[in-house]
Design the sequence.
């Protein structure tokens, strides 16, 4: 680890003197007002108060070191915990470490980072140790992240996703699906993993930070984090944004800051091209269909999506154009950002004829009809049947209404008749005459209007009777009759035609049907043309990789059928179901935005569910049928108070699941590659290792890693599944005291090892 700046080792004497003086001053200040966690706007204004002459000053001393910011960081670290009350500075100081002391250490730049790091040693002789920060240092890292987010997040471009509020994977997928038109060529940038981010890049990062933040102490501390390997970019496994314990949350924002100038470059290039590409260009007008003569305007466009260190560039231009763009981008990344691009793997793909893996999903440009296929004949028939049934139901309702009216009418008449007979005239205590008249009038009106607009046979009949063969229409007779009578007759005939001849109504009906048909034809034509002319992205879950992953873990046998997982049989029934539920839910959350989500649902609802049932059967030495009778297909558990709990998503629930936009779910890796095994130990109860949990009703659990159980090295591309991350080897067989709530959350995949204090894990034999 050669770096020009050595680890800052504070002079203990000076530091102590400074810190005690500082502490006194701070204590005086804060005796009056205990620190409160900050809401986003307050943090923003605190950061902005340090802005002077186009730069931020004294960020470490005045913002990061502020007890309120540190307390906000503490609360953030346990934000994922269910129903946790807000931490106060008093409760943190009483149970964990003194916020005041940490604040003064940061303000006087006397924090000894090295002593806050714990080195976990790997099991394999070739592995590198994992450095994990203790809880205190984690708070500092989170405070750094918060403050950097307040400074930078507004400046980031719109296509930078990951590690940002509301701009996660699913938002990126929505952009890919909805906003990109007619991509032709694309490429993703692959970095040389072994040399991705070293000391040279850290220096560059500090100089980038220095452009906005004038604070040597802060930059030195970031260098120290890197030297102590608390933040590490040197990763050979896919690791960013996965919730694995070896990833520090501060790295996400540092990556975004590092790539900001790259994002800007792309943005500028796009602007440049829009300018040089004004409105229309003759060769952009494509004559798609010679018969209809439709002309399409296809402007040349560049699209980009960056999810942390994953970069995808798409164009609607030619291959040569895309090639030039690629060269320009690679040059920028290598020369300006000093990153080593793996040129072998950074190649151009056709958007239409090749699939590309990005953010753990498969992308391919397809015709719109592939994504929304036209109705099949069977579906059309079903729809017709449904419409017919609806019509019949309507008719039945109408008939029922008429029947009721008739009954009611008869009742009314009978009543009136009886009254009249009894009393020779109407003598009511109250008058309902008007109401009755009103009711009859509306009924009558309705019936008349309906009749006069209907095309029923008896209307024809009536019209025929009234208009045909009358002697008054014979000219010989008409001549002999008085003029008034003939006129009155003609007028009558006109009115009969006007009101009783159903031709008009019939014509209207025919016209409506014709319009509908025309519209449908037009829609079909438009769809067909669009299908020929438009391409958009289809985002799929990589089913091959998912199938390989579930096969690797052992959910399925070589035939692809569910099988039991023997290594889970040592767990309680509840924990087995929770473990499966955690894995299943992570799969469902991660791939819910995919066009082939239905297939992922089958994997969870069938393969995982039955693997769970078979595991329970193996544990209890029962048959599958007996197990299903006991737990039901929905894997119900009865709790102590007799109520039933369903933790694994039920078949019905899975069926109803759809797209949940705007979330940034963690991939399944962390949940899939770890099992926590309860230990029977005589150790005295210890405090729960989940961040800031002060419960002591804990039980020891041992972390068992999948790669160790399977004896497969995650770096072995032949045997391990590509793109699947793995928890760092050094955590294998580490033991963690956990309270009932947090072990449950870990099993259910809602917490990851990132949410627990890995520095205080034990080794128990
Ligand atoms: Zn706990």
Sequence:
């Amino acid at each position: 680890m050669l770096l020009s700046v050595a680890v800052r080792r504070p002079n203990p004497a000076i530091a102590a003197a400074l810190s005690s003086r500082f502490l006194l001053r701070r204590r005086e200040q804060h005796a009056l007002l205990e620190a409160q966690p900050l809401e986003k706007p307050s943090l923003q204004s605190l950061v902005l108060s340090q802005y002077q002459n186009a730069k931020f000053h004294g960020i470490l001393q005045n913002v990061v070191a502020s007890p309120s910011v540190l307390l906000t960081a503490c609360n953030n670290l346990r934000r994922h915990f269910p129903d946790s009350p807000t931490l106060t500075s008093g409760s943190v100081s009483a149970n964990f470490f003194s916020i005041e002391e940490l604040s003064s250490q940061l303000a006087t730049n006397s924090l000894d980072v090295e002593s806050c790091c714990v080195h976990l040693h790997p099991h394999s002789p070739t592995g590198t140790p994992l450095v994990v920060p203790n809880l205190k240092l984690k708070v500092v890292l989170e405070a750094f992240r918060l403050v950097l987010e307040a400074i930078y997040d507004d400046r980031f471009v719109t296509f930078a996703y990951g590690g940002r509020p509301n701009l996660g994977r699913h938002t990126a997928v929505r952009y890919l699906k909805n906003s990109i038109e007619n991509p032709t060529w694309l490429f993703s940038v692959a970095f040389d993993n072994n040399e991705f981010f070293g000391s040279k890049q850290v220096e560059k990062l500090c100089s980038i930070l220095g452009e906005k933040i004038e604070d040597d102490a802060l930059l030195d501390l970031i260098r120290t984090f890197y030297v102590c390997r608390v933040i590490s970019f040197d990763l050979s496994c896919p690791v960013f944004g996965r919730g694995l314990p070896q990833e520090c949350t501060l790295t996400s924002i540092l990556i975004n800051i590092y790539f900001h100038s790259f994002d800007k470059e792309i943005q500028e290039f796009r602007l440049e091209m829009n300018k040089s590409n004004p409105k229309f260009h003759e060769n952009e007008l494509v004559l798609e269909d010679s018969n209809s003569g439709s002309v399409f305007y296809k402007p040349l466009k560049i699209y980009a999506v960056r999810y942390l260190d994953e970069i995808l560039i798409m164009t609607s231009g030619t291959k040569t154009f895309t090639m030039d763009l690629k060269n320009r981008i690679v040059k920028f990344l290598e020369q300006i950002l000093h990153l080593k691009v793996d040129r072998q793997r950074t190649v151009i793909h056709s958007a239409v004829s090749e699939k590309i893996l990005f953010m753990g999903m498969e992308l391919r440009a397809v015709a719109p009809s592939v994504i929304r296929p036209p109705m099949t004949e069977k579906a059309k028939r079903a729809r017709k049947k449904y419409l017919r049934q609806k019509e019949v139901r309507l008719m039945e309702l109408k008939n029922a209404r008429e029947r009721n009216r008739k009954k009611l009418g008869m009742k009314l008449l009978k009543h009136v008749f009886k009254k009249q007979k009894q009393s020779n005239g109407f003598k009511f205590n109250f008058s309902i005459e008007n109401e009755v008249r009103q009711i009859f009038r509306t009924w009558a009106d309705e019936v008349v209007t309906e009749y006069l607009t209907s095309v029923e046979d008896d209307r024809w009949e009536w019209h025929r009777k009234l208009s045909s063969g009358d002697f008054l229409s014979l000219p010989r007779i008409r001549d002999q009759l008085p003029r008034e009578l003939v006129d009155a007759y003609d007028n009558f005939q006109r009115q009969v035609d006007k009101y009783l001849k159903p031709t008009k109504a019939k014509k209207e009906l025919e016209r409506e049907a014709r319009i509908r048909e025309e519209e449908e034809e037009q829609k079909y034509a438009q769809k067909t043309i669009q299908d020929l002319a438009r391409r958009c992205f289809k985002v799929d879950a990589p089913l091959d990789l998912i199938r390989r992953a579930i096969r690797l873990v052992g959910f399925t046998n070589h035939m692809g059928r569910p099988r039991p997982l023997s290594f889970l049989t040592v767990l309680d029934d509840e924990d087995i179901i929770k473990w499966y539920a955690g894995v299943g839910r992570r799969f469902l959350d991660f791939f819910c935005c995919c066009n082939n989500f239905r297939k992922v649902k089958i994997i969870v609802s069938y393969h995982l569910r039955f693997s769970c049932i078979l595991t329970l059967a193996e544990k209890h030495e029962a048959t599958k049928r007996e197990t299903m009778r006991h737990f039901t297909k929905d894997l119900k558990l009865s709790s102590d108070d007799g109520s039933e709990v369903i933790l694994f998503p039920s078949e019905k629930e899975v069926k109803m699941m759809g797209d949940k936009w705007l979330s940034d779910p963690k991939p399944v890796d962390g949940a899939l590659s770890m099992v926590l095994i309860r230990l029977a130990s005589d150790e005295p109860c210890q405090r729960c290792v989940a961040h800031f949990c002060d419960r002591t009703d804990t039980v020891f659990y041992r972390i068992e890693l999948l790669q160790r159980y399977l004896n497969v090295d995650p770096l072995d591309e032949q045997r391990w599944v590509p793109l699947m991350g793995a928890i760092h080897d050094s955590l294998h067989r580490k033991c963690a005291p956990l309270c009932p709530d947090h072990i449950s959350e870990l099993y259910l995949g809602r917490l990851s090892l990132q949410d627990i204090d890995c520095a205080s894990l034990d080794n128990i034999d």
Notes: Residues 688, 690, 693, 695, 739, 741-742 surround zinc ion (CB under 6 Å). Residues 377-423 form the longest helix (47 residues). Residues 285 and 297 are 5 Å apart (CA to CA). The chain has 28 helices and 20 strands.
